[in-house]
Specification:
The complex is a heterodimer of chains A (112) and B (115). Chain A has 112 residues and is an all-beta fold. Chain A contains no helices and eleven strands. In chain A, strands 2, 4, 5, 9, 10 and 11 form a six-stranded mixed beta sheet that branches. In chain A, strands 1-3-8-7-6 form a five-stranded antiparallel beta sheet, with no helix packed on it. Chain B is an all-beta fold. Classes of the chains: A mainly beta (112), B mainly beta (115). Chains A and B meet through strand 4 and strand 5 of A and strand 10 of B.
Chain lengths: 112, 115
Amino acid sequence: AQSVTQLGSHVSVSEGALVLLRCNYSSSVPPYLFWYVQYPNQGLQLLLKYTSAATLVKGINGFEAEFKKSETSFHLTKPSAHMSDAAEYFCAVSSFNYQLIWGAGTKLIIKP
Amino acid sequence: ETGVTQTPRHLVMGMTNKKSLKCEQHLGHNAMYWYKQSAKKPLELMFVYSLEERVENNSVPSRFSPECPNSSHLFLHLHTLQPEDSALYLCASSQDLRDPGNTIYFGEGSWLTVV
């Protein structure tokens, strides 16, 4: 069975600091992996996705994620946090029957 | 502005009421979804439609009744709900259900409060 684990329900970083949001998955088949972001009072939107091409995936707003098969990880990073990055971030893996398996989400807090 | 529009954005209903949530997608997609988002829980997939045919019903109570009259519109009919049904209900769409890498596009959600 596939599953997604996001470490830390809340992550707090200072403005300008590195953002690192962790995601580990389990999958019995080659995975498709996604990061979505949800700003307050909005729906989710795609940040980036891994679909078996390059292992380093660049997304919107300066975010990127690296697929590491040996570590079954797909951590999300951004070199320098901005106040506008405050949101909730969701990692997901696509299962064989088209359903997305979602992590519980990580709320990113940016300190001035 | 999102390509998936949901109305109403906020709904308060009594446990004996009947109401509906509406969703419209302007992206020409073939698949539409209803998700439930509750605090401190992962997103829960409720229903999936592909080309107006329901392909998934994740053991959702019968007090939730979906309707998909065409590939652009999706409804969620609500009746005799419970307070624990209070949540954010998200509609979404995607191009091709058979593609595991396809992107899902979400609406802004309908906040439902059951009193």
